[in-house]
Every structure is written in structure tokens, then in C-alpha cells.
Write a structure and sequence with these properties.
Elements: H1 2-58, H2 61-108, H3 113-146
Helix pairs in contact: 1-2, 2-3
């Protein structure tokens, strides 16, 4: 009888931990999108660095100025994407901590509600700030298209 009760309790904990697992999936998707964007920024940066060397040899100062402006923009975008990736990663780690606390708290029979709440709120704040960073990077990239250097 006691074993059946334990199975029911563990089953309930697993059901409660399902929502954070779905959140992990969403954060993983955001990480994929942001790392792909960062890769595209890096590719563009490498291309412009090669172009700068070529144009430097041709002595074309007006074109080199445009390249430098775009490289500065790409450096700014890279920092923002790095921030977003870092925030998303820490958010995912904290969601994992929430899941671990839920299981260990239940197994060790100690109160976890306030700890889970605080860690989950911090994870959500990191996720929100990461999304804001991502939105800022998109705005900067879009602005560069409409208002070229």
C-alpha cells in the first residue's frame, strides 16, 4: 500500500514537472534561432573583413568607411546576440534546477514551494530580458537595411 502511495506521489511530481520541460523545449528553440543568427552575423563579418583587405589594397577610402560602419554594427549585434544566448542558457539551467528541486524536495520531504517559486521567477526574468535583447538585435538589423551606412 505504501509503495502505491509513493508511485502516485512520484506520478504527480512528474506531471508537475511536465510544464517546465515544455519550457525547456521552447528555450532550446530560441537558442537555436539565436545561435543561427549569430552564425550569420559572423559569416557577414568575415566576408566584410576580406572585402576591407581587398579595398584597402585598391585604396578606396569611401568604400572602406562603409565597411567599417557595417563592421561596427555587426560587432554591436554580436554583443547583443551573445547576451541573449547567455540569458537563454541561464534561464534553461534554472528551469532544470526547478525540476531537480521539485523531485528532490518531494523525495526528501522538505518544503520547496518558495524555493521553486523564486528560482522559476528568476528564470522567467532572464528569459524576458533575453527576448528583449533578441528583439533589440532584430531592430538594429532591420534599421541597417532601411537606413544603410
Amino acid at each position: 500500500m505504501n509503495e502505491l502511495r509513493d508511485i502516485n506521489v512520484i506520478s504527480h511530481v512528474i506531471q508537475s514537472a511536465t510544464a517546465p520541460v515544455f519550457l525547456l523545449t521552447a528555450i532550446g528553440t530560441l537558442l537555436t534561432v539565436t545561435t543561427n543568427r549569430l552564425g550569420r552575423i559572423t559569416d557577414r563579418n568575415r566576408y566584410l573583413e576580406r572585402q576591407r583587405i581587398v579595398e584597402d589594397q585598391k585604396d578606396a577610402p569611401e568604400y572602406i568607411e562603409k565597411i567599417h560602419a557595417e563592421l561596427a554594427n555587426l560587432a554591436w549585434r554580436t554583443r547583443i546576440m551573445d547576451t541573449a544566448i547567455t540569458l537563454f542558457t541561464f534561464s534553461a539551467l534554472l528551469v532544470c534546477v526547478v525540476i531537480a528541486i521539485m523531485f528532490s524536495g518531494n523525495m526528501l520531504h522538505f518544503g520547496i514551494s518558495s524555493t521553486v517559486s523564486v528560482v522559476f521567477i528568476i528564470a522567467m526574468i532572464l528569459l524576458i530580458v533575453g527576448l528583449i535583447s533578441f528583439l533589440i538585435e532584430i531592430y538594429i538589423a532591420t534599421k541597417a537595411i532601411y537606413y544603410p551606412y
